[in-house]
Amino acid sequence: MSSLVVAHTRYLLLEQLRVPISLLAGAFFPAVAMVAFVVPFAGSDPRAATMATGSLAFFGAMSGALIGLSITVAQDRELPWNPYLRTLPAGPAPRFAARILATLAVTVTSMVPVLLVAGLFTEATTTPPRLLLGLGAVVAGLVPFMLLGLFIGLVTTSKAAIAVSQVLFFPMAVLGGLVMPPQILPGFVQAISPYVPTRGVAELLWAITAGSTPDAVALVMLGVWTVVAAAAAAWAYRRDEGRRFS
Amino acid sequence: MTVLARTVEATRRYGDVLALDRVSLDIRAGELVGLLGPNGAGKSTLINLFVGLRRPTSGVVELLGGSPSDPVRRRGIGVTPQETGLPESLRVAEIVDFVSAHFPDRVPKEELLARFGLDDLARRQVGGLSGGQRRRLAVALAFAGNPRLVFLDEPTTGLDVEARRTLWEGIRSFHAEGGTVLLTSHYLEEIEALAERVVVVAGGRVLADDTVRAVREIVGVRRVSFAAAELPELPGVVGAERHGDRVDLVTTDPDRLVVELVRSGASFSDLEIRPTTLEEAFLALTSKESAHV
């Protein structure tokens, strides 16, 4: 069983690595944002720089989970290779596990440039245990976005998946305070912000990087979003299976 | 003989479309069975039932003594992917490794690639392969897990003669060592070159299930057409149609039919005898039960 997970993960990672531009894309925008905004304006403030690093690192990781996953899942469904895989002697579990592992590997890698910029050009500081804790929060925070990505990929065509995931991605990133601190955003945005799943993750990351107290509403809503996204993804999976393979 | 795969009264509907209509078929160990039929006949649906991609609407499908949806059963089979869907960015050897990882009993990679003339291409990315090379890779993948039963869906459509012979050799040697093959094609020639037993499918039903020679005789029919007002009783007619004053007869023995036509004294004109296409032969088989004008 586990050897099949390895085989499927290896396969998906090879596919990703052969098109390295897709890897760079996830890392590019947050790294540029670091250089353009954080380094000049908050680079000398250790607390602000560390918080911004956490937010932007998750911004990149989230694009891999939501946009990347929805597009690859939608594309895979359109290829005749996909029904062939179902004739191989394996259930859906290895492929699913591999999909999650490969997405995590790609998203975590995409955070490296942001962390490098932060370490080299700002006063952002962290300790190894905090960095690990932050990594754990990122992985946990990615779960609802991976589930949303699966859901979109399972109900839309690949072209629609690109559009739908981007339309969801940018507003969620901005509303959750990943791009700019929520305190400087307009009042109505501040009011909505705790109900967006990104805010919950941001609260966790800020608590770890700056020792702030996380907002309870945002954390509860993150849990609610995770459950809703899981239900939606499970529903979409069964619907897709029923259409193509029953 | 052991039955490796079977359907019993299997029916499959897609919405209102009846793709398979109460098909009962046994595939026994060591057989090389050709599934012959026009496009849309139900060949792919039948294969999809056997390999677990689809479930029958009613009836039973068995694979290696169990259900095709059980992954453990599928360890004993090999399936060909459509070569248009092979992952473009992976190398030939990587795809073989990936597929082989699913099987407990694997053919060594070098041996598998050599058998299908792919040994020089192991390091090549699939995106850079020609159509024929992709097809050979796709067929090779069906044999990666040392299967007992292999399903080959249109294995050589669109290949040049040499590539086709290479593939046929690979399939024959597998069969010679005791392997069982279910092969679909809409080319009679391919079925003749490889299969011993032919199952003719059309309109979702099995029309004939016999040796290659017997089916060859059935489908080797001629079309006799002429203008006549009255049609006498004629021998050997497997299909008949009337268009205005013209009568189209499909027959296994055109010589005898014409002799009988003349002998009957019926008046006719514009006699024409043409070989039938495979498609027409299928139609003749389909309308066999209702062969009267």
UniProtKB/TrEMBL annotation, chain A:
GO (cellular component) term, any one: membrane
Domain ABC-2 type transporter transmembrane as annotated: residue spans: 9-199
Claim: DNA repair is one of the keywords in the record: no
Record-annotated membrane-spanning stretches: 21-43, 55-75, 96-121, 133-155, 167-196, 216-237
Membrane topology: Multi-pass membrane protein
InterPro entries found in the cross-reference section: ABC2_TM (IPR013525), Nod_factor_ABC_transporter (IPR051784)
Protein name: ABC transporter permease
Species assigned in the record: Nonomuraea terrae
From TrEMBL, chain B:
Pfam families linked: ABC_tran
Residues covered by the ABC transporter domain: 5-228
Name this polypeptide is given: ABC transporter ATP-binding protein
Topology of this chain in the membrane: Peripheral membrane protein
Residues annotated as signal peptide: none
SMART domains named among the record's database cross-references: AAA
Keywords: Antibiotic resistance, ATP-binding, Nucleotide-binding, Transport
GO cellular component, one term: plasma membrane
UniProt GO MF annotations: ATP binding; ATP hydrolysis activity
GO process annotations (BP): response to antibiotic
PANTHER family: ABC TRANSPORTER ATP-BINDING PROTEIN
Localisation per UniProt entry: Cell membrane
Main location as per UniProt: membrane
